């Protein structure tokens, strides 16, 4: 089964995987400089190993302030 979760919100990706029988492990990546406007955790990578899915996520700014 091919699973394309790159760019999706963490909650959405984790829910999908759990509903399909995977145990989800989340690894967070953060830059040295924190963006206070970054509010949404987004999937950067999904690695499947047996019945475990490892999601690499990072915080992204999804709303642009003018």
The biggest beta sheet reads:
3 strands, mixed
Note poorly predicted spans: none
Helicity range: 10-25%
Q: How much strand content do the residues show?
A: 35-45%
Describe the strand arrangement of the main beta sheet, using strand numbers. 1-3-2
Helix and strand pattern: HEEE
Shape: elongated
- How many structural domains? 1
Radius of gyration: 13 Å
Structural class: alpha+beta
Q: What is the strand tally? A: 3
| Oligomerization category of the chains in this entry | single chain
Average of the residue pLDDT scores: 84
Discrete helix count: 1
- Termini gap: 42 Å
Describe this entry's structure for a reader:
The chain has one domain. The chain has one helix and three strands. The longest helix is centred in the N-terminal third of the chain and has 10 residues, at 10-19. It has 66 residues and is an alpha+beta fold.
Q: Tags for this entry?
A:
alpha+beta; 15% helix; 3-stranded mixed beta sheet; 3 strands; 66 residues; 1 helix
Summarize the structure.
With 66 residues, this protein is an alpha+beta fold. The chain has one helix at 10-19, and strands at residues 23-29, 40-49, 52-60.
Indicate the topology:
Elements: H1 10-19, E1 23-29, E2 40-49, E3 52-60
Parallel strand pairs: 1-3
Antiparallel strand pairs: 2-3
